[in-house]
Amino acid sequence: MEHDNTLIKQAIDNYSHFSPNQKEVLNILIDMAVDGQVVANINDICAISTSTRATVSTAISFLNKYELIIDCDPSNLITNRYFSKKIIKKYNSYAYTTIITHDQVLNEAAFQIFTKKGPLAFLPISNRETSIVYSVHNSNNQKEENIEQLIKDKNFKYRITNIEKINKFELKSLNLRSYYHSNILAFGDLLHKVHPLVGQGFNMTIRDIKILLKIIKRKCDLGLSLDSSVNTEFEDNLKHKNFIFSKTIV
Length: 250
Fold this sequence. Notes:
Layout: H1 4-14, H2 20-35, E1 41-42, E2 45-48, H3 56-65, E3 68-71, H4 77-82, E4 86-102, E5 111-114, E6 119-124, E7 129-137, H5 147-154, E8 160-163, E9 167-176, E10 180-181, E11 184-186, E12 192-193, H6 201-221, H7 228-247
Parallel strand pairs: 2-3, 3-11
Antiparallel strand pairs: 1-2, 4-7, 4-8, 4-9, 5-6, 6-7, 9-12, 10-11
């Protein structure tokens, strides 16, 4: 399984003919998909992030300020108000996640180790950091495991110097019933989540980015406004594909 950095580079290369402003939009969308942070405002496109914590009056003022808003935070006020209707599938499984720090090493490929209880994935972040995801079905997890020791036992590549706090969360797939509300477009993990086993969640977001950029580029080329019509066209293009794809995973 190739690391997602390769997909990001491919997406950027596909739009090498973009103007500087259009390339900046692509970079913003990728950054939002990666970590959900506020990046920037480009013309009438605005990204809402995990730092957006507002009162109702502030939120309404915010919504009226922009013609097109891209929301990738699953817990802000605007999300809670407009994107609460979801199709959820529980996997009856849990994931354990952490980040390991290690000596510098060429770290360009992700890999999974299939243990007796579930897959243990090593996902490169940089040459000195790697993300760990261990997913296990409830029926295989009657006795709590020592995840830190499991990582050490199964690791064959890294000289580990630190293992961060291990987090645990329930695994489930999620698809929003509506991709947008008026001028607000849901994006990234807010829009859809899938089981991490096959590593396709971020790949789905990369596809979303490419489709959204095509829509934006076409409107810019025609001199049209970037308004709520972008959201309608985006949903029409991708909603059925993302739903069918997510239902085929696990």
